[in-house]
Write a structure and sequence with these properties.
The complex is a heterodimer of chains A (258) and B (210).
Chain A (H helix, E strand, L loop, with lengths): L9 E10 L2 E11 L4 E5 L6 H8 L7 E6 L2 E2 L5 H6 L1 E5 L10 H11 L4 H14 L16 H13 L5 E5 L7 H18 L2 E6 L2 H7 L2 E6 L2 E6 L1 H6 L3 H10 L3 H5 L5
Parallel strand pairs in A: 3-8, 3-9, 6-7, 7-8
Antiparallel strand pairs in A: 1-2, 1-4, 4-5, 9-10
Helix pairs in contact in A: 3-4, 3-5, 4-5
Chain B lengths: L2 H7 L1 H35 L1 H16 L2 H8 L3 H4 L2 H26 L3 H9 L4 H32 L11 H10 L2 H29 L3
Helix pairs in contact in B: 1-10, 2-3, 2-6, 2-8, 2-10, 3-6, 6-8, 7-8, 8-10, 9-10
The chains are: A alpha/beta (258), B mainly alpha (210).
Chain lengths: 258, 210
Amino acid sequence: MQPTVASPVIEFRDVSYRVTGTEVLSGLNLRIERGETLVLLGRSGSGKTTTVKLVNCLLSPTAGEVRVKGVPNAVGDVIRLRRGIGYVIQDVGLFPHFTVERNMGLVPRIEGWPADRIRARVEELLQVVGLARDMALRYPHQLSGGQRQRVGVARALAADPEILLMDEPFGALDPLTRDELQREFFLLQQRLHKTVVFVTHDLPEALRLGSRIALMEAGKLVTVLSPQEFLRSSDPWASAYVRAFGDGLESAANRGAS
Amino acid sequence: MNVFRFILENRGQVLDLTLEHLWLVGLSTLFATLIGVPLGIVIAHRRRLNKPVLAGANIIQTIPSLALFGFLLPVPWLGERADRLAIVALTLYALLPIIRNTYTGIRGVDPAVVEAARGMGLTESQLLLQVELPLSVSVILSGVRVAVVISVGLATIAAAIGAGGLGEFIFRGLAMVDDRVILAGAIPAAILALAADVGVGWIERSLQPR
């Protein structure tokens, strides 16, 4: 039933989203392939977050169709869909009344995993995101911003989802911590090969983490380029970005250099 | 002024009336919680309903209590028994703080937490039971606390329609112009209000998530 050409994991077909008369997103066509890190780059209000929320059905398109693993979101089971997608947001949104352990283990728990398997998974995850084991019993308010977002990432990975949606996950962190988490995330992704949609307005971050960069402006997709192409692009929006961030971008695009 | 001797001499009756009072307050608070908390949850999620529901509860609150007892008297099933009527009236009064605090508590949960929970695939009921209610329980209970304290005071007026409770002493004392009798009702009522305040506060703290 599947065509021989590999179908994209996430596909936007002529997707528009309007709310009270304003078009937040118009005519988006985009295919996100298995294992890639697609960065949505654009300024505030360009429709990046809306695009991400259309993937896990936190929003529904007013026109067009979003497909995840070939299934149109409009017909699929929303809860099942979301449990198969890790979701990381800038404000983290850890449950303040749960320990780190329970935060990480929530999706496995509601999925009915046995307790010892959850415990083992939590231990594994703590290691994956570089947190000490004794962090498991802490509460979110006892953690630093960077530690919190590590827990956020671990929580998103808990049930081993194929897709990861990350909406400015490192945007609220100080530059040093951000750098650290970017590097670790890059290495992690080299290992896990999740299908990642990553939102940012930060070009160095986009160049560093993205396998492709989708540039958005005023609710429209301007262009999709690889990091190297992006730096050389003659597209007015892309070059405006490159100019705004200035020197030192080459090293970011060459990865790992920091 | 030998109030305490009076209370001691009539301790049987004081105890009976206190228990009656507790019964009126306890049952009406229970009903108000059973109605008010779900209603608060509903209006926290269906924002269009929040104005009319809160306005309704507000209007009830503005009706003078004695008048409300009077209004309810001719209502068929209610008018048959004074305690039944008193419980309904007290329930109506207790609704506002409970609905309002439930609404405020749930709306006060960090939107990022709710968004993360939704995005992770929690169903609406899991979201409510595992996230929204635990995080707003102390606000909801402080609404119940206010309701209880108001009810203890208001329930004294129920004696005017013959529903019993500590108000009997107060009304009797007023008629007899005898302070001792008034205080025999007022003091236990005050103690009851304080005890209820402390009691619900204790529940509040023990249920509080970290």
